[in-house]
Write a structure and sequence with these properties.
The complex is a heterodimer of chains A (502) and B (245). Chain A has helices spanning 13-21, 47-51, 60-66, 79-91, 121-136, 148-157, 169-174, 185-193, 207-214, 216-226, 255-275, 308-316, 358-370, and strands at residues 5-10, 30-36, 39-45, 71-74, 97-100, 107-111, 140-145, 242-252, 278-289, 294-305, 328-340, 376-381, 391-394, 414-421, 423-425, 435-438, 441-454, 466-473, 478-484, 494-500. By secondary structure, chain A is of the alpha+beta class. Among the domains of chain A are: 5-145, MutS, DNA mismatch repair protein, domain I (3-Layer(aba) Sandwich); 242-340, DNA polymerase, Y-family, little finger domain (Dna Ligase, domain 1), CATH 3.30.1490.100; 414-500, no CATH class. A 7-stranded antiparallel sheet of chain A has the order 14-20-19-18-17-16-15, with no helix packed on it. Chain A has a 4-stranded antiparallel sheet with strand order 5-6-1-7, sandwiched between helices. Chain B has a domain at 54-187 and 195-230: Rossmann fold. Chain B has helices at 2-18, 59-76, 94-97, 115-126, 143-156; strands spanning 51-55, 82-87, 107-111, 131-138, 159-164, 177-184, 199-207, 213-219, 224-226. A 9-stranded mixed sheet of chain B has the order 3-2-4-5-1-6-7-8-9, sandwiched between helices. In chain B, α4 packs parallel to α5. Chain B is globular, with a radius of gyration of 18 Å. The chains are: A alpha+beta (502), B alpha/beta (245). Chains A and B meet through α13, β12, β14 and β17 of A and α2, α3, β3, α4 and β6 of B. β12 of chain A pairs antiparallel with β3 (107-111) of chain B.
Chain lengths: 502, 245
């Protein structure tokens, strides 16, 4: 499809905005001014004030001299941007992709490809925008063209027609001033100095010549206006591909009502997802209440799915968090993250049980929804010997072990998070203890195995190595003890209990 | 009269079925490798579709129960199914499970903060047919909670293992079997150093419609091995002169 762009230029954005807020200023000349180097510099001018010859960039004191009764209002930095953002969000009704004109900071750019026919063609489309904005109080100039650059140029400097037909952007640009190309002031000065008052006087020149004199940026702007170079608009609102809305005739207040709404939305969304072979990964339910507040709940799944009852169960766990207050009038269900879902032939092969079993995945989603993703984990073997670090925690269900579990050395079934110091009686050096006292209980060792020396990972931390002993007491309890450090070494050695064997 | 007796028998069989005891299929003995212990259950079948409760008061008992359950999981997870292990204060060391022929990476651990969450997860997991077993560590289990778990098990057929930390024997739950596993001194050849295979006193305190008993069992590297002649050894937890605290 041929891309079409509309540029909306608000000629007096701040002045119009002020007039909407304070209609009593209609007959008063006023300007906005901001402090700069200890002076008040005018940043925006009202139409009446401009008739007196007041311009932006003037000093407020000078302006007051040429225009009696001039009202000087304080300007806040970032105000135009905020205004444009609000207007841009309002303009989403005309096109899903609305961007702020970052160059002049006084207009909007719309990607209207495939939108204009809804208003009966491009002429009707532009008319609609102009009249709607005019009724609000904004005076605008518009242009529609194949490229954002040419639309911008025509909207700001065009005199003939705002409708540039497909492929006609070069012809439209020829008679315009070079300012229409969104160039920096230094480049424009150079162009004027050389007598280039119209674009047609340099558009046919070799690129290398232009690059040498005016730089790469100049060529880029020119190419963007002509359409040989692509220009990307940064949309204010990223349109969500999968989004469904449900408006309610009466405000919804009950749990049953919310459940019905979610079910309805899920049915529509899941049917769409299924038709496109996609599955939901994250879902956001936004509830707009009649008191103007917005309530949001999120769900996430560990695997793409478009299973209605499963997703419904995930939302069911979150319904408690939705406070309807006076009532909810609009439900919007977005799926910001979707994945391609593999559709298995369920009927023909029975699924093999395992971690990727569908029912297991659904269980994990429910647990993640209720308790949180962070509680679910698995352990992988790590290529390390230090007991605390010999297992690697992973939250992924699909991750495969990179190494095998070691079964050559005994490891206790229960490992204490931190070793607990014990009192020990050992007669012979480097032998297992005769008895040890743990939690006030004396365990007389009858059988023992060891030692297994595990060196500290010196590149990570410092300290003594551990000599592990597997011991069994008279009653049959089996323990994992270790001595930290050498027997009779310079440092004092200590005994610890670190685990229980089966 | 005969008709009535037949009806009773039929009802009894039904009840057994609901409680997780499958009648033995003709010519097909489905064993879990517990040897004589399995004969304690009705129909000599280890009930897979049931809740098994383990009393673990001491850490030694808890470790022994972990080992015993791991040995059972090895059989239950043979077909590649996963297992959920829910707990608030888990001490199980995953690396040790491979010694019991269980693949630790197929166990999904859920370490939560509250006991309530453990029970919720357990119930949800027991409803999940794709799992082989669910292990839950709780400090207490009420009758109502255990009933809920049992109902979940009956519909899905997942085996549930509850490690209960309070030793209150009178606490009534609807668990199909109640176990207590205590460690026993291992056996080594005369004069040989080191430790033998882990050996346990397996006490089957309660079985639905079965006969409770006490057995001595060993994990002989690959599978359970029953030690036939019961030695006159004290059970670890009931040893005299043992003071706690």
């Amino acid at each position: 499809m041929q891309r079409r762009f509309v540029s909306i230029w608000f000629r007096q954005l701040l002045a119009d905005w002020q007039l909407i807020r304070r209609p009593e200023l209609k007959d008063v000349p006023f300007v906005f001014a901001a402090p700069d180097h200890g002076r008040m510099i005018i940043t925006a001018v009202s139409p009446i004030a401009s008739n007196f010859g007041v311009e932006t960039g003037m000093r407020a004191a000078d302006a007051k001299a040429i225009c009696p009764g001039l009202e000087v209002l304080d300007d806040k930095p970032g105000r135009p941007k905020n205004l444009l953002k609000g207007l841009g969000e309002w303009c989403v009704r005309y096109s899903p992709i609305v961007a702020i004109d970052e160059f002049g900071m006084d207009g909007l750019m719309l990607d209207v490809s495939g939108c204009t026919h809804l208003w009966g063609g491009e002429r009707g489309y532009l008319k609609e925008i102009v009249s709607r904005l005019k009724s609000k109080g904004y005076t605008v100039r518009l242009a529609i063209a194949d490229t954002p650059g040419s639309a911008w140029a025509v909207s700001h400097y065009g005199r003939v027609t705002p409708l540039i037909p497909t492929g006609g952007q070069v012809d439209a640009l020829l008679d315009l001033v070079p300012d229409a190309l969104r160039l920096r002031e230094t480049v424009l000065g150079k162009l004027r100095k050389l007598g280039f008052y119209q674009i047609k006087s340099f558009i046919g020149m070799p690129r290398s010549v232009l690059r040498r004199r005016f730089g790469e940026d100049f060529l880029l702007r020119l190419a963007q206006a002509i359409g040989t170079e692509n220009e990307v608009l940064v949309p204010l609102q990223v349109p969500v591909a999968f989004s469904e809305r449900l408006a309610c005739l009466e405000p919804i207040k009950t749990r049953n009502g919310i459940e019905t709404a979610i079910h309805k939305l899920l049915e529509i969304l899941c049917n769409r997802l299924q038709a496109e072979g996609k599955g939901l990964r994250t879902g956001v339910l936004t509830c707009y209440r009649i008191d103007g507040k917005v309530v949001q709940v999120n769900i996430g799944t560990s695997g793409a799915t478009h299973h209605i009852s499963h997703l419904f169960k995930l939302f069911q766990l979150k319904i408690d968090q939705i406070r309807p207050a006076l009532g909810i009038e609009l439900f919007v269900l977005d799926a910001p993250k979707v994945d391609v879902v593999a559709v298995p032939q369920e009927e023909m092969w029975t699924s093999t049980p395992g971690l990727d079993d569908k029912s297991v995945i659904r269980l994990l989603d429910r647990v993640a929804g209720k308790v949180g993703f962070q509680v679910i984990h698995r352990y992988m073997p790590a290529t390390r010997y230090w007991p605390e670090r010999s297992v690697q925690r992973t939250v992924s269900v699909t991750e495969k072990a990179v190494t095998t579990w070691r079964v050559t050395q005994p490891r206790p079934t229960e490992l204490l998070k931190t070793p607990v110091p014990i009192e020990v009686m050992a007669i012979i050096p480097d032998h297992p203890p005769k008895f040890f006292i743990y939690k006030g209980m004396r365990h007389i060792v009858t059988k023992a195995d060891g030692p297994e020396r595990i060196e500290r990972e010196w590149w990570l931390d410092q300290g003594e190595h551990r000599d592990y002993y597997q011991v069994e007491d008279e009653q049959g309890g089996r323990y994992w003890l270790f001595r930290s450090g050498h027997y009779g070494g310079e440092q004092k050695y200590k005994w610890f209990i670190h685990g229980f064997f089966a | 009269m005969d008709a009535k007796r037949e009806l009773f028998q039929k009802l009894q069989q039904d009840i057994l079925l609901w409680q997780g005891f499958k009648p033995l299929a003709a010519g097909k003995a489905e064993r879990i490798g517990l040897g004589e212990i399995e004969d304690s259950f009705p129909g000599s079948v280890f009930p897979k579709k049931a809740i098994h409760e383990f009393i673990t008061v001491q850490p030694e008992q808890s470790a022994a129960s972990d080992g015993f359950i791991a040995g059972l999981l090895a059989v239950l997870m043979e077909n590649g199914a996963a297992c959920v292990w829910a707990s608030t204060s888990r001490r199980l060391f995953p690396a040790s499970l491979s010694l019991f022929n269980v693949a630790p990476e197929r166990i999904i651990f859920m370490d939560v903060k509250t006991e309530k969450d453990v029970l919720w997860i357990t119930e949800e997991a027991l409803k999940c047919e794709g799992l082989a077993a669910v292990v839950a560590e709780v400090s207490n289990l009420s009758l109502i909670e255990s009933r809920r778990l049992q109902l979940a098990v009956e519909s899905s057929g997942v085996t549930g293992f509850i490690l209960r930390k309070d030793g209150n024997k009178t606490a009534s739950t609807v668990a199909t079997a109640r176990w207590r596993i205590s460690p026993l001194p291992s056996h080594t050849e005369e004069g040989m150093p080191g430790l033998g295979f882990p050996r346990w006193q397996v006490e089957l305190l309660k079985v639905r419609n079965g006969k409770p008993g006490s057995f001595i069992l060993e994990w002989a590297g690959e599978k359970f091995k029953e030690v036939k002649k019961a030695k006159t050894q004290n059970i670890w937890s009931e040893a005299e002169g043992r003071q706690i605290g």
